[in-house]
Amino acid sequence: MANGYTKLLVVGAIVVIAILLASYGADFVLNSAAQATSTVTAYYVPNASPDLGNPGSESFWSTIPWTSVPLVPTVPVPGGISGHTHFVYVKAAWTYVDNVPYIMILMKARNHGYISWMACPETTTTGKLWQPFSVEHAGWWVVNVSYKQSNESVASVNCIPVKDQIQYPPGEALANPIQIIAVNQSGKLVGEILGATGPGGHPLNGGNPIVITSLDLNYSGHMITSISQFVKMGLNDTTWGQNAYNEFYPEDTAKYVTLFYNSSFMYPERFAILWSLGGAPSDWYQIAYTPHMMPGTSGAISAGQDELWVLNDNPRANNTQDFGYPGLTLFSRNSTPPYAHYAAYNDPLNLGYLKDQGIIADAYVNGSSIYYIGGVPFIGFPALNTPQYNTWDLMNGMYNASKLWNPSVVATGITYRQTQTGTYWYAEFVRTFSTVGVSGGQGESHYQVQLSPGKTYHVAFAVFQGGAGESVDFKSISFWYNLYIEPASSSSYVAMLPMLMGLLIAPMVPLSMKTLKYPLLRLVALPFLKTFLKVSGHGKTKI
Q: What domain of life is recorded for the organism (predicted)?
């Protein structure tokens, strides 16, 4: 008798599980299996709170599984420096804070090479700076500094027609910010240049002032040919753009497959998340399509348009050893936040200004270039910023920083931990689902991904091992993945309830079957079992 009831108990449990599986529907079962290897699920976690001073330590992360994402080198050549990171591990969650949804993404990768928070400028193996010039809109403010190699202490300055300015992408001049000042020497005005560089990006005249021998400037259509005229027009100590020479980033650096580094000269550790904004054929996301930068360009993507979140451990990280914190974004640990939070942007966590947090380099990417979104312009790549300021205003600091597009909408934390299997970097990203209104309706959100529960987004991941010489083009990248944001109502916490109820009623099934002489089994369970077997490829199995 005992054995009979045991068998019935097992049969009852199988029936309940089959009913539950079938109740989810054949589509759910098949789609889950098909997407499991290429989908990162953002689980809903009630009342979650990020701790960016210690990323990954929050208790809710322990309830979420890692997704193992394989990576490939961006420049797969023998002896190249790309591809140190073979896998990055990803978790995702989301929560509500005062009815505002936030996405949280945690990445983990094994460290390769040296560990340091001191980032250096990228340098080729021949000693040339990887990116010696900044990028700004082409215009009358771009000038040429002409000097002789035999004497760098003197030079002439002349304007360059826009058509003759080195531009990449089109409309953006590769240039170096310089200051032109007038000093009184024994009652005579003398013009000097500060900050001029040579073709490799190294300071001219050892970084000392360069005396101007002749002047020929175009100030918004007004020609200036003398220092006295320059001063009378109120231009003393203004910033101009020194035009790049024939050697410049990125075309001339496309031939390089490695960078110079050593134990005291290395690059930032970087984690990146790429969000597709569309523009590429939908089928491309399902095949071997790596969304990497095109070599020989200033960051142009291979197809489509995307938003790029890049976390550097220097100069935007949250570690106190990061001497550059937070880089060229005007932030300070002790000053008032420079960027306004407009009323239309609801962010109760106040991202960008949390204790012990860093921020990303937020960028928009298309087939032309990478464009930094907001913040102080001319850091290196072209910038998308508030339309109310022109390039001259921005170059010369004639703007209210709070009116610039806000670069701090994504808060981050990064750290490394020693484990029994090696040293791992942990990087965490947090952002509101929506950035609409973040810059007062000026258009910043048009270049950023907008998220919603229940939807799937195309994402890709990258890791730069700065301590192993990776930087700029050299890194490890993934193929496209799906990131699914599960609705709060179907959270894994809620989804377990039917299964738990099923396990509770399972012991009751044998008794019902025993009492009803099995008709209940055939009447209720059989249709569900047939459906399940059919969708799982066993439609001809006899029952």
A: Archaea
Sole residue written with tokens 């258009």:
443
pLDDT value of position 247 = 65
272 beta partners:
310, 462
**Cis omega before residue 377 (within 30°)?**
no
Closest CA to 345 of 273, 444, 413: 444
Q: How far is CA 148 from CA 145, 153, 199, 204, in A?
A: 10, 9, 13, 11
What integer pLDDT is reported at residue 3 of this predicted model?
56
| Higher-pLDDT residue of 346, 505 | 346
Token readout for 299 is: 């960051």
Taking residues 521-537, report their average pLDDT.
42
Query: How is domain 39-120+264-485 classified at the CATH fold level?
Result: Immunoglobulin-like (2.60.40)
- Cα 39 to Cα 65: distance, rounded to the nearest angstrom: 12
Residues 6+ away with beta carbon under 8 Å from 32: none
CA–CA dist 121, 135 (Å, integer): 16
Spell out the residues 6+ positions from residue 311 whose beta carbon is closer than 8 angstroms to its own: 270, 271, 272, 317, 358, 360, 361, 412, 414, 427, 429
Token pair recorded at residue 212: 């101007």
CA distances from 275 to 308, 384, 410, 428, 453 (A): 6, 17, 13, 16, 16
- State residue 492's pLDDT score: 52
Residue among 32, 35, 103, 39 at smallest CA distance from 483: 39
How many other CB atoms sit within 10 Å of the CB of residue 169? 18
pLDDT digits (tens, 9 = 90+) for 484-527: 999 998 655 433 444 444 444 444 444 444 444 445 444 444 44
In angstroms, rounded to a whole number, what is the distance separating the alpha carbons of residues 516 and 57? 54
Write down the domain spans for the chain: 39-120+264-485, 171-261
**148 φ, ψ to 5°?**
-105, 140
